[in-house]
Design brief:
The protein is an alpha+beta fold and about 250 residues long. The chain has a single domain (about 10-250), classed as Endonuclease/exonuclease/phosphatase (Deoxyribonuclease I, Chain A), CATH 3.60.10.10. It is about 20% helix and about 35% strand. The protein is built from seven helices and twelve strands. It has helices at about 30-40, 55-60, 70-75, 145-160, 185-190, 195-200, 235-240, and strands spanning about 10-15, 45-55, 80-90, 90-100, 105-110, 120-125, 135-140, 170-175, 195, 220-225, 225-230, 245-250. Helix 4 (about 145-160) links the parallel strand 7 (about 135-140) and strand 8 (about 170-175). The protein is globular and about 50 Å long. The two termini are about 20 Å apart. About 45% of the residues are buried.
Length: about 250
Amino acid sequence: MPGQTQRFSFNVLTLNTHKGFTAFNRRFILPQLREAVRAVSADIVCLQEVMGAHEVHPQRIANWPEAPHYEFLADTLWRDFAYGRNAVYPEGHHGNAVLSRYPIEYDENRDISVGNSEKRGVLYCRIMPPQLSRPIHVMCVHLGLRETHRQKQLNMLADWVNSLPVGEPVIVAGDFNDWRQHANRPLKARADLEEIFTRAHGRPARTFPVRLPLLRLDRIYVKNANASAPTALPLHIWRHLSDHAPLSAEIHL
């Protein structure tokens, strides 16, 4: 009907994969992690600490996949994927990744490292579901460990969000390392981003360490979108697959 509002919903999952190893790097569990991620059946998956390449591990670990980890995780379930290399070292590199059931029209990885600290980045994807006439802007985030660095990175993130087309939906998800819970206020004030667990429950979800989550490090923010069913996924399934608990939610446009 003319003038009818276009309605569309999709599921988002965010998870720090810890490079495919259990806590303290005791065991390689990427194949099990892939099955757990597939079972969620999310439409868009934001991953942090994804191994892009490593020269030594394939020689020592029997079930190390031939493909980069983001391709291995995407498999046949997510038709499109993007990877943003953040940390580079002599043996290889790791970074953020986005897996999508919908076409990724454009992707860009932006270095938001501060000074000589550990490399951090934001992986941006412009995703175009066939059902929509406008794109979804997705940012997969991994912020620094120092408060002063995070504040600068939040400013960079807010500026980028504000540069996007007015009125189009934005999803920002990932590991914010914001254990002091200082991110919500500036992101709301500067970029009108709302954290969906805070909107639903008053505070971000506890996600770290996964065996007994105390710190609220991982987040899903939205702009020009609504959310329902924000969930920290069951720990009895995930506690041996990463050091962070994964978060999921239904996003409604």
